[in-house]
Design goal:
The chain is α+β, with helices and mostly antiparallel strands. It is built from 4 helices and 7 strands. The chain has a domain of 85 residues: RNA-binding S4 domain (Structural Genomics Hypothetical 15.5 Kd Protein In mrcA-pckA Intergenic Region, Chain A). The strands form 2 sheets. It has a 5-stranded antiparallel beta sheet. The protein has a two-stranded antiparallel sheet with strand order 1-4. The longest helix is centred in the C-terminal third of the chain and has 12 residues.
Length: 127
């Protein structure tokens, strides 16, 4: 790897790796102080990253921790972008408090006509 490609701007790398939709959005996040390189807060989008650096940043509701594996040369398709980093983020806990509902029930909670008929049949049947 040539010396010129040994480092890459952090905003550009975050955009290449498809963590942010636009480079200007990535630069805005970095300028807001929401990105750390190897534990050090950075506020300049022109800060550089190199292979082996660990980035910590907020993305929507999650905190992402990634290790830079490759710098890349373009913003390519998703599989190419995923090859640029190793995800070190803790696994997201799955929601286990799901309310079990009848498969035919609407989202509003109201029973369907078929379901109402079934409930009426249960009420009328002798126990």
């Amino acid at each position: 790897m040539s010396d010129q490609l040994a480092h890459l701007r952090v905003d550009k790398w975050l955009w290449y790796a498809r963590f942010f939709k636009t480079r200007s959005l990535a630069a805005k996040i970095v300028a807001g102080g929401a990105v750390r390189i190897d534990g050090q807060h950075i506020k300049k989008p022109s800060a550089t990253v190199s292979v082996g650096n660990t980035l910590t940043f907020a993305q929507e509701k999650d905190i992402r921790v990634v290790r830079v594996v490759d710098l890349g040369t373009r913003r390519g398709p998703a599989p190419e972008a995923q090859a640029l980093y190793e995800d070190l983020s803790p696994p997201v806990p799955k929601a286990t408090d799901k309310v079990e509902r009848h498969p035919e029930a609407h989202r509003s909670g109201r029973p369907t006509k078929k379901l109402r008929r079934e409930m009426e049949a249960v009420k009328r049947s002798p126990s």
